[in-house]
Design brief:
three-stranded antiparallel β-sheet; 4 helices; disordered N terminus
Amino acid sequence: MSAPTYTANGDNGDNGSTEGELNAWKHRAPYAIHHPSEHFETRYRGACHCGRVRYQLSREKPLDCKYCHCLTCQKLHGAPFQWCAIFHKTDINFTHGHHDLGWYDPSSQSTSHHLPCKVSCAYCRTPIMDEGRNMILLFPSLIDFESEVDRKNFEASCHMFYGRRVVDVNDGKPKWTGLSEQSELMSEDEGGRGNEGKRKRIEEREREVEEGGRDGEKKQREEDGEKHGE
């Protein structure tokens, strides 16, 4: 039996078209292709697992990098926590797979392109980025770093939603109960497994934030650059 034929972007059904109102997103950042006249200087290159989606980045250092331990990130990434880097939408240039992207809106659990939303490869399902209203949140594990210096540029500054963690991370970085700079700091001793009483209180507060998808909306507003004054 022959392998099934792959259809470009089976999730949003565009069939490779760039015309019409439904495809207007392809002409806006972060999806619009940068032309040579724009002098887009490539600093990094990244790709999904199957290689159908590939992109370039022009900014040397992200606006910020963080580890997020919220339940949404744990479930959608199938991992203890998410490593994320914040960029402007114009910092990325898709060189391949422009039509091979799928979307997911966790607040409505729909696959429509509604901001904020999750963006993935429609073939191998690798998470590509979170798209906010003004910013994008990329995942450094997709980037092909050419040196340790480059990797160092993506070092996380802190942990978010650490009270929801499934593993302890004793790395000396600030650990916030919720959003960074907008919640309580936890010391590594206070956050230890032996402090179940405090952990339960923290989890209860975080659960209140997360109910109804409000944690995702607040985190997305931060990703959108509100804390950067943009």
